[in-house]
Amino acid sequence: MKTLVFSLAACAALTGLAQIRAGEGIANTTADNRTVQNVEFVQRGGGAEYGYRGYEMPLGLTFLPWAAPNFESTVKGIRFNFGWGRHAGVYGLDLGVFGRSGDFAGISADVFGNYTERDAAGIQMGLANVVEGTAKGLQIGFVNYADRLEGVQIGILNFAATQWTLPLINIAW
């Protein structure tokens, strides 16, 4: 399995389908003007301990424990979650059952909800929406939570750690 993952990652990198995030791979020029690619692994989360590298991809697919690109990658485009989706960042459209990301910006419509480890911007829709950083935009769900809210929460239970919270609708700027 590990060989398959490395092979797919190498093919994606060679064909230009993937970009290495800043600081994850740094090209250096030697004295004789040859370009050498240093390999640096992702330091956050479980990817580095398995040797995975983080990429930026236009499409993300997740099905329970499996993800393409890997969990330490960023999806800039569309992510489909069949079960539970997790990526380092999602920027664009997120559709599925349950979505988890480090950072989020765009529109998320996940049936059971969304969990964002840092900041989120845009629209989140699901039964439960949780942002551990700043939520900018709109959260619609049964339960909505944000450490800091700069927008609107619509739901039965709305929480924002840094300001007053109200049931049904919560607005903060």
What does this structure look like?
With 173 residues, the protein is mainly beta. 34% of the residues are buried. Strands 1, 4, 5, 6, 7, 8, 9, 10 and 11 form a nine-stranded mixed β-sheet that branches. 8% of the residues lie in helices and 62% in strands. It is elongated. A hairpin with a 5-residue loop joins β2 (25-29) and β3 (35-39). The chain has one helix at residues 2-15, and strands spanning 19-20, 25-29, 35-39, 55-63, 66-68, 74-116, 120-125, 128-140, 143-155, 157-160, 168-172. It has one helix and eleven strands; from the N terminus they run αβββββββββββ. The longest helix is centred in the N-terminal third of the chain and has 14 residues, at 2-15.
Write the layout of secondary structure elements.
Layout: H1 2-15, E1 19-20, E2 25-29, E3 35-39, E4 55-63, E5 66-68, E6 74-116, E7 120-125, E8 128-140, E9 143-155, E10 157-160, E11 168-172
Parallel strand pairs: 4-6, 6-7, 6-8, 7-8, 8-9, 9-10
Antiparallel strand pairs: 1-4, 2-3, 4-5, 9-11
